[in-house]
Amino acid sequence: MPDVFDVAVAGVGVAGAFLLRNLSKDLSVVGIDKREKLGFPVECGEIVPVKKEMRILLPNLKDYSLFDIPEKYESNRTDYIRFIAPDGREFISEFKMHVVKRDEMISDVAESGGHRIMKSSRIVSFRKESNAGIIRLDNGEKIVAKIVAGCDGANSRIAAGLKLKKLLAVPAKQYVMRNVDCDEDSIYMYVGKKISPGGYAWIIPKGDGIANVGIGFVSSRAEKGDTIRKALDRFIKEYPYSSKYLKSAEIAGEIGAVVPVDLPYERAVYDNTILLGDAAGMVISHVGAGIPTSMVAGDLAAKVINESFEGGDFSHLQEFDLLWKKSMLETIKSSYFIKTLWDRISDSDERLSRYLKLINNRDMWEILHSRTPLKLRVAAFFIPILNLFF
Ligand SMILES: Cc1cc2nc3c(=O)[nH]c(=O)nc-3n(C[C@H](O)[C@H](O)[C@H](O)COP(=O)(O)OP(=O)(O)OC[C@H]3O[C@@H](n4cnc5c(N)ncnc54)[C@H](O)[C@@H]3O)c2cc1C
User: Fold this and answer.
1) Per-residue pLDDT tens over the stretch 181-215
2) Per-domain boundaries in the chain
3) Cα separation of 356 and 352, whole Å?
C-alpha cells in the first residue's frame, strides 16, 4: 500500500462506484466502504428514470449514455407513476423507470475500474490538510491521499471533517415484500399525514410479486405517539388505497435509512477534497431521488480528477463545481421549491386533498419531472391566504 494515494474514494455507493469506474488506471486509487458487500443491504427504492426521461429531468447533460442501463441490472421496467391523494384520487403519469438491482449494479460498476477497494472498513474521521486528506478507519488504520472524494452518503464523515452543517434528511423505512398484488407496470406514490407525515409512501414492483414498500416519516409533522413502524404497518394493513395490494404480502427484508431533502452545499470542492451525491446534497428532494444525480456526479468528478493529475494542477478541481451545477442544479432547485411548497400545504389530509383538486394529470406529470407549472408558482405567493379557505 502506498504511503500516499493519489485518490481516496470515501464510500462506494452510487457516486463512489461511478467515480471509481472512470478514474484513470495510471492513478493510485483506493475505495473505502464500511460494507462487506458493496451496495448491500439495499437501502433504496431502486428506481432510475430511463434515458428518455433523463433528457427531460436533467436537460443540460451533454451525454446521456450513462443511462443506457444494461438489462442485467433491471428487475423490472415500469411505465407509469400512480400518485394517490389522501382522498383516494389517483393521478396517472407516464414516467418510464428502470427498477434496478442496485447492489449488483454498484458492485460491478465499482469493480470494473480495477482499483483497490477496502470493504468492511468504516471511516471514523477525516482531516483536510493543505496538500492531502487524512482518513482514519475504525481499525486504527490511516489512509492519506492527495485528493479525497467524499461519496459516503447522507451521514458523510468527510462533510463532517470539513465542518459543514448537517443537511436536513427524512428518515425512511422500507420492507421488501413478497406476494404483492399490484399493477407491475406502475410505481405507486401516496401522500398524506396518516401514512407518511412530511414525506410519501411507495410501492415499487420489482416483478414476480416482489416489491419495495416504504415510507418517509418526519416525526415533528406526525400525530403525537405515532412512529415510522406503526405508520408503515398501517400503510400495509389498513390504508384503503394501498392495503388492497398488500393484504397477502409477507415481509422478506427490512431496512431503515435517511434521504437528504435539503438544498446542496454552495460548493462541492474544498481545495483537495470534493463531495459527491448525498454527501453533497445532490438530490431531487421532492421525490427523494439521488441515484441519477449521484451517477452523473461520479462520472463528472472522474473526468475532472483525471484532468487535474494530467495537467499537474489541482486548482482544476474547481471545474467540478461548474460542471455539476450546470448539469443538475436547476432541477434540484426546482424540486426543492416543490418540496417546500408541499410542506406548507400538507399539515392536514383534508387540506392537501382540497389543494390537489386544483391539479390535473398534466400538472402532475410536470411536478414529477421536477418542473413547476405556472399555477404552482402563483399559488406559492398566496399560500397564507389560500390556507384560510382550504
Ligand atoms: C429508503 C430509500 C429509498 C430510496 N429510493 C430511491 C429511488 O428509488 N431512486 C433514487 O434515485 N433514489 C432513491 N433514494 C436515494 C438514493 O438511494 C441516494 O440518493 C443515493 O444512493 C445516493 O448515492 P450516494 O453514492 O451519494 O450514497 P450511497 O449510495 O448511500 O453510498 C454511500 C456509501 O458510503 C458508505 N459509507 C457511509 N458511511 C461510511 C463510513 N463511515 N465509512 C465507510 N463507508 C461509509 C455506505 O456503505 C455506502 O456504500 C432512496 C433513499 C432511501 C433511504
Assistant:
1) 999 999 999 999 999 999 999 999 999 999 999 99
2) 5-58+103-167+262-336
3) 6
Query: Are 144 and 5 within 8 A, CB to CB?
Result: yes
Ligand 1 pocket, residue 13 CB under 6 Å: yes
Which of 37, 44, 97, 293 is the pocket-test mutation for ligand 1 (most atoms within 8 Å of CB)?
44
Instruction: Determine the length of the chain.
Output: 390
Pairing of β 133-137 and β 269-270 = unpaired
In sequence order, the 6+-apart residues with CB closer than 8 A to the CB of 382 are: none
Q: Can you say how many angstroms the Cα of residue 387 is from the centroid of all Cα atoms in its chain?
A: 31
Cα 361 versus chain centre, distance = 25
- CA-nearest residue for atom 51, ligand 1, is 44
From the CA of 384, how far away is ligand 1's center (Å)? 36
How far apart are alpha carbons 133 and 129 in whole angstroms?
A: 6
**Which residue has a Cα nearest atom 49 of ligand 1?**
13
The C-alpha cell that represents 126 in the structure block? 477525516
pLDDT tens figures, 43-55: 999 999 999 999 9
According to CATH, the topology of domain 5-58+103-167+262-336 is FAD/NAD(P)-binding domain (3.50.50)
| Furthest C-alpha separation in the chain | 67
